[in-house]
């Protein structure tokens, strides 16, 4: 009887089941073990090396007034240098930096007057900042971020002792009212779950410049940003790609004390432009990484596409409902556990809705990048 029932299912149901099994694999091998791993040990003073924290800013005085004091108050047992790279700002960034340098001997300013034609402004500015930094271990964040705690430097720098040449951290977005904020945070959680858990499994492919660290030796081994210096995006993920190709060891530091916190996009258009810029670098990833990410994204998109088609087939409603219940339980359990582990909670009841909206939004972004590739930078 059971075999007859199974044979009566349409090929679309079997395809839908295959997509769920693919997603189950990612949850069981990457996401759930990463979310339930033991807490990372607290950093100790023993073995702490001097570090330089680099921040690149273009007309971000208000953000710098919030960020720099927090960086200067970081607790770190070894020498800590803060390097501000003023990238062609025409506000009062220079004057503010000069005031700080009078009171904090460990604060330094690197000023960029112009960017050579054809080069990415941020990558050019970061290159000059890295050359000016005094220490070989370099930590990076963005001007519109803040460290979650005054232990951020300690935790992120401790990743070098695993040992590692690069350290990947997690950067969350602030909680605000509205559906867009929840969707932005869901996308951030899902992206973080992928690049952190993949790296934890020995398959690193990207990081985020809001919370990233690497050694000067790694930067030198990749010849800096040379392979993608003309691309506006990729100062973080494409550098990780190049570094891994050169044999760099990558560590993950994902304790809440090591997070950074950013202000999310306040409009759909702002988030659209931001995500277009971030996703544009993906075409330069290694084939294995594109396949690994593509299988996960593609299985989710295919699940929804097949489900829509099956809504018009009354004979398949029962197995369709069963697979939807199973997948919804899988999504809620896995993403809730990840959000707790990364201290980035989202309403459990809203997770299935966010999942649907996100993957259709992702499809629209992919089509947009295929049809219209022009990008803008500040």
UniProtKB/TrEMBL annotation:
InterPro entries: Glyco_trans_2-like, Nucleotide-diphossugar_trans. It comes from the Bacteria. Its EC number is 2.4.-.-. The chain crosses the membrane at residues 12-32, 293-311, 348-372. The keyword Hydrolase does not apply. Keywords: Glycosyltransferase, Membrane, Transferase, Transmembrane, Transmembrane helix. GO terms for molecular function: glycosyltransferase activity. The keyword Manganese does not apply. It is an enzyme of class 2 (transferase). Residues 52-218 form the Glycosyltransferase 2-like domain. Belongs to the glycosyltransferase 2 family. This is Glycosyltransferase.
């Amino acid at each position: 009887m059971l075999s007859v029932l199974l044979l009566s299912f349409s090929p679309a149901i079997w395809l839908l089941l295959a997509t769920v099994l693919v997603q189950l694999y990612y949850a069981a091998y990457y996401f759930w073990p990463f979310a339930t791993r033991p807490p990372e040990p607290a950093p100790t003073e023993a073995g702490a090396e001097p570090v330089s924290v680099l921040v690149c800013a273009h007309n971000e005085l208000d953000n710098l007034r919030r960020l720099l004091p927090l960086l200067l108050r970081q607790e770190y047992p070894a020498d800590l240098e803060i390097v501000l790279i003023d990238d062609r700002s025409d506000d009062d960034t220079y004057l503010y930096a000069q005031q700080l340098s009078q009171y904090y001997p460990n604060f330094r300013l690197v000023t960029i007057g112009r960017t050579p034609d054809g080069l990415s402004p941020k990558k050019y500015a970061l290159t000059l900042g890295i050359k000016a930094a005094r220490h070989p271990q370099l930590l990076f964040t963005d001007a519109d971020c803040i460290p979650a705690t005054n232990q951020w430097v300690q935790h992120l720098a401790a990743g070098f002792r695993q040992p590692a040449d690069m350290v990947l951290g997690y950067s969350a977005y602030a909680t605000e009212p509205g559906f867009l904020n929840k969707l932005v945070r869901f996308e951030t959680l899902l992206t973080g779950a992928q690049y952190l858990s993949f790296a934890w499994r020995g398959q690193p492919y990207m990081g985020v410049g809001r919370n990233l660290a690497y050694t000067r030796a790694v930067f030198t081994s990749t010849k800096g940003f040379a392979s993608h210096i003309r691309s506006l995006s990729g100062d973080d993920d494409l550098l990780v790609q190049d570094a891994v190709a050169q044999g760099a060891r990558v560590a993950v530091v994902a304790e809440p004390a090591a997070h950074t916190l950013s202000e999310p996009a306040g409009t759909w258009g702002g988030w659209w432009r931001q995500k277009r810029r971030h996703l544009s670098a993906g075409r330069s990833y290694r084939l294995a990484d594109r396949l690994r990410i593509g299988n996960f994204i593609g299985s989710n998109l295919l699940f929804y596409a097949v489900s829509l088609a099956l809504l018009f087939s009354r004979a398949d409603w029962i197995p369709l409902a069963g697979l939807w219940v199973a997948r919804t339980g899988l999504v809620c359990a896995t993403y809730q556990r990840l959000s707790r582990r990364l201290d980035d909670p989202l309403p459990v009841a809203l997770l299935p809705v966010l999942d649907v909206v996100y993957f259709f939004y992702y499809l629209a972004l992919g089509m947009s990048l295929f049809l219209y590739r022009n990008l803008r930078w500040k």
